[in-house]
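Board notes (copied after class):
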Amino acid sequence: MVSLSPAAIDAFLSEEDDTPVVMLNLIKFEPDGGRERYLQYLQMAKPILARFGAKILFGGDGLPVLTAGEAQGWDATVLVQYPLRSAFRDMVADPEYQVAFKVGISAIADIVLQPLKPIDGLV
């Protein structure tokens, strides 16, 4: 079951909204056609993302985890850049996105959404 944490979303949106953020999506697909439905979701979502100034920076299949310990492998990873936190908020509230989101959540068995901000001087 995919669900967002209202407290985490509120905290994320309450921070300064003056720089882009990248959303790390770690995805585990439903075994019964989840990958195919997720690709359908992406096709629906891409024009919506563009309307809000967001773009997919990277998408790829997960390979075996190389670290020891209790590390979960993921089926896929997607990095989406939003120009501002408010663009993410506005997009998820958009009625057209809500239709696409229903397709997306039907494809996903588990997901981690981790917002990222740049580390000054790293790049």
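Comment from the instructor: Residues 13 and 96 are 21 Å apart (CA to CA). Strands lie at 21-29, 55-61, 76-82, 108-116.
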